Amino acid sequence: VGVAISTSTPQRKPSMNRTKAGHGLFNKPRISSLLHIILAALLLQHIIFEMVIQRMKIRMSWMTSALPGSVFPDSDIYHLRSSNRGIKQEPTVSGTDPASHQVKHNSKDQGSELSTDSSSPPMESGGSRSVDQKKRKMFPEVQYVLYDYKFGQFNNQVAALLVALTTVRLYTPNATLVLPPVTMGRESRAQFDGEGTNQTQSVFRIVGDLLDNQELAKIASVIQYDEFQKSGVGNQVQHARQCVKDQWIRSSEHNSSIAVHRDTYGMQNLRDLLWESNESKGESKCIRFRESYIRAALACSELPTVLLLPKTFGAMSRSCVTDYPDMGMLMKHLIPRQELRQSVEEFFETMPHPVLGIHIRLLTDGNRACLRQKFESFRRVVDYLVTTYETRFQSARSIFLAYDPSDSDLEKLFNAFVAVFSPTKRVLSCADIPNCGKKRSTWTSGMSGEEFSSIFRSPYSMALMDMWALTRSELFIGTKDSTFSINVERWRSTMTVPLAKSSLNRGAVMIDPLKWECPS
Question: Which family is this sequence assigned to (predicted)?
Fold first, then answer.
């Protein structure tokens, strides 16, 4: 028997559990790869789930803080100025004082690009992605912002303040806004029969005397202009070269931006900044002075920690407060001082609801002439409005009219409303509200005459109570192109109140005198 001896490795028979190629389902390398893929997928799923949950928490906490007076969510966004919740008293120059400029996130160099996720509030429920949610240039070195406020009467100045506040919030996260005084107009002198205006106070503060400083302090760092002037930085600003785009108003050279900054803030070394807007290239008109302007102004000035803005009035598009969530959020807290709101809200508790609020203003002499020519009598004006806005008038149980009582035509129109509706509806004006009219609320009994007068008899106090009454009315008809009506509509659109859910309250309803079609 011959025996064959081989030095080669004997071949094993194929296993039933393997494929011919030796790379079947139960191959160890394949099992290891599949396990890695499964673990990676599970980890990714977990990360996405956590992100969704966190996003929902932020959104829910923001929704619960929609009303004025509420507490904001505990987020870095609202701790930008956590150590300075009120009016600033002692500005600093260097920006290193932790008691005045405490910021949690890390600031980058001038013009650095930061995501708004860490510098602006979350979108409210139902909002769309807007301009201020995209990446933008930030200027953390700016400590103080001053703006040209002098354009028209009070509601124009409120609009200018809103834009200035929004600009600060969007682009200068460490800055404090300097609040200017209030410019008086003819309508501000229209107060109460036999009582007149408060003549003992020549300068009124837009925030404090008229708007609620405690509400504003929750979301912004501000300082009064006279306090700023007395500070070290204020003294430096008066002598250092500063640059601002000079915007002129043809009616008066004293209303140019250079004149306003010089006369209000005592600046002696101002330069005209040669800068052109890019609005024609699609740049938003809501916030006109953005990255390019800020960069140019700071480069031109000797004190780059202070930014001067030209006239900020002009962003009166009603969509601005929704296009810019920051602007809408600020508008919620840019509201009348607490005593004025309380007077209106207590009175509204006694009124039959729904309330139809109406603001009528004759913007031009042509509007006034047209009204007289087209309608011949004020009773016919009422008939025209009832026909045009029939559903609103039918739904209302009370009618509140806001108007300038010094305007004899509008006073006659109010009397015509009373004559038409008094048998079936209550027709009221600010004169019927305690503290706005001659009657005083019981809770004012502890006030001295001077204190009461400083609150309720100052210029624009009556206008603010009118505006708050229109804001709290279930239904609203305003006047097109009036900043009074537009600011009311902005309050109504940004506040979470039951009346906003009414189908009749969706969208603006504005009287347009230009459509009266009067012969020229």
Answer: Belongs to the glycosyltransferase 68 family.
